[in-house]
Design brief:
- There is one protein chain.
- This protein has 137 residues and is mainly β.
- The chain is 0% helix and 44% strand.
- It is built from no helices and 10 strands.
- 32% of the residues are buried.
- The C terminus is likely disordered.
Length: 137
């Protein structure tokens, strides 16, 4: 590992992601949380873990710019909307059509890559916006 030191952060997760929307993670129970104080700056340890209610247990999460994408144990895809400088946890999870086993959102939030749950095919989605956020494929 590069760098001069490592800092252990309190908590336990099965999945973690950093992006402009902050540091987000999923624990063993599929609960979603983010680190307060990390919105807009992934170079800080933040303050504490804040749980965010989810429609189901998630297994994968990816933090982008004012957006977080997630996948549950049924391989359903969701996007967290309403993340802003004043609402770090966002407002709601919106279901997105498609079935994926893994997802990764770009740092600017406008590009999403995913792996199909059944056939291991790779998908890429571009130009995501408020008007058209209903499909991954």
């Amino acid at each position: 590992m590069l760098g001069t030191s490592c800092q252990q952060i309190y908590g336990g997760l099965t999945y973690i992601s950093t992006g402009a929307a902050g540091v987000w993670g999923v624990n063993r129970g599929g609960e979603v949380c983010y680190v307060t104080g990390t919105y807009g700056s992934v170079n800080v340890a933040g303050d504490r873990w804040q749980q965010v209610a989810a429609p189901s247990a998630f297994k994968v999460i990816s933090s982008g710019d004012d957006v977080v994408w997630a996948i549950n144990y049924n391989d359903d895809v969701f996007v967290r909307k309403g993340i802003t400088a004043t609402k770090h946890g966002g407002e709601e999870w919106v279901p997105v059509s498609g079935s994926l086993s893994h997802i990764s959102v770009s740092s600017n939030g406008n590009l999403v890559w995913g792996v199909d749950a059944a056939n291991f095919k790779i998908y890429r989605r571009t130009e995501i916006n408020e008007v058209d956020d209903t499909c991954i494929r």
